[in-house]
Amino acid sequence: MTGQPGSDDELEVIHLDDPAVLGESVDPTGDLPPLRAALEAVLLVVDEPVAEVMLAQIVERPTEEVAAVLRSLAMEYDEQERGFELRNVSGGWRLYTREACAPFVERFVRDGQQARLTQAALETLAVVAYRQPVSRSRIAGIRGVNVEAVMRTLVSRGLVTEVGTEHESGSVLYGTTGYFLERLGLEDVQDLPPLSGYLPDPYSLDEDDVSTSR
C-alpha cells in the first residue's frame, strides 16, 4: 500500500506486515497500550459502526495505519474462529457475534423476553426491505391488511424512513435506513438474501402480484 509522496522521485511504502502498522506498538515508553488494544477497547463499547477516520482521531494515528490494523484484526478473528467478528458495514467498523453462534446468543437474549418486533412488524419490514422504494398502500396490498400502525412503529424505531414520493400518485415512498443495515450486519440492501427460496410457489413479490396476503 502506498502512502503520501515523500518527494518527486520516491513514495513512502507502508508494509502491512510491519509490527508498527499492525498496531503492536504505540508508545516506545510503554505508557500507552498497543494500537490494536486501543482499537479493540473502543470497538467493544460502540453502539454503531465507527468510521476509520473517527477511530484514527481517537487513537491519534494515521488513518491508513488504523485501517490496516482493523483489517488485520478482522482476519485474525476469522482465522481463530472467535465467537465474534469485526465487520466493515454501513460506512464503519463494529464487532458482531459470529453467525455460527447465533442460536446461543438468541437463546440468551430472548430467554424470558418478548420479541422486539411483532410478527406483523417483521413481515412489513421484509416487504419494505425487498420492495423499496414502496408506498404504504402497496405494502398493504401485498400483506392484505392495514399497515398504518405498523409503519409508524417501524419509522419510530428508525428501521424505515421516507425516501421520496411516487410521481403518479404523490404517495410517500418508504425504504430501510442505515440503522436497519447495521442491525443486520449488511453493507447494502443488495446483500439481503434471495427471497424466492422462502416463499411457497404461488407467492411472490413481483410488481403485479399481491398474492402474498393470506
What can you see in these coordinates?
With 214 residues, the chain is of the alpha+beta class. It has 2 domains: 97 residues, Winged helix-like DNA-binding domain superfamily/Winged helix DNA-binding domain (Arc Repressor Mutant, subunit A, Orthogonal Bundle); 80 residues, Arc Repressor Mutant, subunit A, CATH 1.10.10. It is 38% helix and 15% strand. The strands form 3 sheets. A 3-stranded antiparallel β-sheet has the order 5-7-6. Strands 1-2 form a two-stranded antiparallel ribbon. Strands 3-4 form a two-stranded antiparallel sheet. Strand 6 and strand 7 form a beta hairpin. Helix 2 crosses helix 3 and helix 5 packs across helix 7. The protein is elongated, with a radius of gyration of 23 Å. The N and C termini lie far apart (56 Å). The relative contact order is 0.09.
Radius of gyration, taken over Cα atoms and rounded to an integer in Å: 23 Å
CATH fold name of the largest domain: Arc Repressor Mutant, subunit A
How would you sum up the major sheet? 3 strands, antiparallel
Total DSSP E strands: 7
Number of domains: 2
What string, H for helix and E for strand, traces the elements in order?
EEHHHEEHHEHHEEH
Instruction: Figure out the total of helices.
Output: 8
Give the helix/strand class.
alpha+beta
Oligomer: single chain
The CATH level-2 architecture of the largest domain is identified as Orthogonal Bundle
Strand content range = 5-15%
Structural descriptors:
single chain, 214 residues, alpha+beta, Arc Repressor Mutant, subunit A, three-stranded antiparallel β-sheet, two-stranded antiparallel sheet, 8 helices, 7 strands, 38% helix, elongated, disordered N terminus, disordered C terminus
